[in-house]
Amino acid sequence: MGTVFSFDVRGGKPAAVRAALAEAVAGLHRADEVFSTYRDGSELSRLARGELTVEACAPEVAEVLELAAEAERVSDGWFSTRYGGRLDPTGIVKGWAVERAARRISAVVAGASGVSVNGGGDVQLLGTPGVAARPWRVGVSDPLRPGGLAAVVSAAGAAELAVATSGSAERGAHVVDPRTGRSAVTDLLSVTVVAPRLTWADCWATAAFAMGARDGLRWLESLPGVEGLLITAGDEVRCTGGLAAWLG
Length: 248
Known about the structure:
With 248 residues, the protein is an alpha+beta fold. It contains 6 helices and 13 strands. α1 runs antiparallel to α4 (90-108) and α5 packs antiparallel against α6. The protein is globular and about 50 Å long.
């Protein structure tokens, strides 16, 4: 998926943790092989060319496409797997794969108090680090000040929490407006979404970024259990009403 992944597992027997990590890494490589748009032989590429049906693909393909269809519905088309005349669900795959890896590790490692999986800065947190007074904390990069933080998200009181950021600071203008098929014209530099599941946080951050500051903020406010931090090119910070509860 062209990015770095890191894992933090608290508790559990070392042998069980190592086995779970090996399985998780294999699962991430498998997701890349199935969904890569850069590999001509991937199932996604073959599906896009009409060489395979969804039914003939791995079960994960149907699962991801169903989730993507739901994301498109909720976002009124601002999140889409089809633009420029081609099938490309990569906007949901990373968040889905990271969340799946975190949940699998948590399920199979007996005695693990908490799991954190970070995929290129998008993080799924489960449980706690093991010390009640020290919850999981995730720094949100400041797009205007390299090396600086715009905020710190605390998972205190949450059994599960995800943090995802979409923006142009590190990868340039890579977010596409699905209505034009071209790079999104937006007054935003970054959108960070806090929600229970990374699958959705990743999608909502992308959609809100394409919408722009005003519409993106209003839309995020309408989603239950979702909070957002939006930073504009003019160094203006806009937040949803409940975000403050997750900062610290």
